[in-house]
Amino acid sequence: MGSSNFFTELSALKMRLSSAYRQSVNAGDDVTHIELQRYILGLLLAFVKECKWCDTIKAKLLVNTALLPPQEAAEIMGMNGSTVRSRRSQYSKKLYGVLGSDIFNIIEYGTEEQLKALGYRLRYLNSDYSEPCKYLSESFVSATDNINDIQAFDVTDCKKAVFLIAVADTSFHSSVVKELSDTDRARLRYLISILSGEAGDDVLRERVVTGILKAEDMLRGRLI
Predict the structure, then answer these.
(1) Whether the Cβ atoms of residue 88 and residue 7 lie closer than 8 Å to each other
(2) How far is 116 from 107, CA to CA, in rounded Å?
(3) pTM higher than 0.85 for the full model?
(4) How many angstroms separate the CA atoms of 49 and 77, rounded?
(5) Are 145 and 185 in contact, with CB atoms under 8 Å apart?
(6) Which residues, given as ranges, of the chain have pLDDT below 70?
(7) DSSP code string of 99-137
(8) Cα dist. 14→18, 45, 114 in Å?
(9) How far is CA 37 from each of CA 58, 104, 120, 137, rounded to the nearest angstrom?
(10) Number of H helices and number of E strands within the chain?
(11) Whether the Cβ atoms of residue 177 and residue 132 lie closer than 8 Å to each other
(12) Cα(114)–Cα(131) distance, integer angstroms
């Protein structure tokens, strides 16, 4: 687990990438890789600020001042500097535990492939895919409710169902699902059950969501 303070590293990396970006722009260099790095850093900042990793009032108060010096943050929060440092240390361990001790090394020195993999991981952590009714219409979800026995499939064999979820929104009606073959409807039911926690585990849920995110990107003509 990371021995350095997560928030200190986050602030320092944000400054380094901003500086590197300005220098590259001024020099007329290709900034594609730096833009990807900054995009991933933005996803990381969003994850930290959303506090899904520790949904408490104390954590939310701390992250709002996470990039400020401890003493300045202490004044804003109405507490002493040592308390701020202690809490930052506590939450730093939590964040490294969720994201891995190499999170900042990947963003700063990782390959394009590593950055994209991290990007999908962060998008998964920032998503609401654990509650499918938030992004799928009720009629869409209920169209598979009559399938009582949830049959397990290899997720790689569920590409049609994955793409259907990727393009589904409130404009979809149950008739769209009913036009599928029985097997594809069963696959869709299985994916929805994974997303809602009825089947599978966190690892499988992340795999399914990552597949949906990649399908969305392909449909929108972007890589990440």
Answers:
(1) yes
(2) 10
(3) no
(4) 16
(5) no
(6) 1-3, 129-135, 137, 139, 169-174, 222-224
(7) H-TTHHHHHHH--HHHHHHHHHHHHHHH--TTSGGGTS-
(8) 6, 10, 19
(9) 29, 10, 13, 34
(10) 12, 0
(11) no
(12) 28
- What tokens were used for 118? 């991290």
What are the angstrom distances between the C-alpha of 15 and each of 9, 10, 67? Answer: 10, 9, 11
**Digit-coded pLDDT (tens) for 76-129:** 888 888 888 888 899 999 999 999 999 999 999 999 999 999 999 999 998 876
Q: How far apart are CA 5 and CA 138, in angstroms?
A: 44
* Contacts made by residues 199-203, CB under 8 angstroms, sequence distance 24+: 199/150, 199/152
Q: By C-alpha distance, which of 120, 121, 145 is closest to 196? A: 145
Distance CA 7, CA 65 (A): 10
What is the residue whose two structure tokens read 């440092």? 85
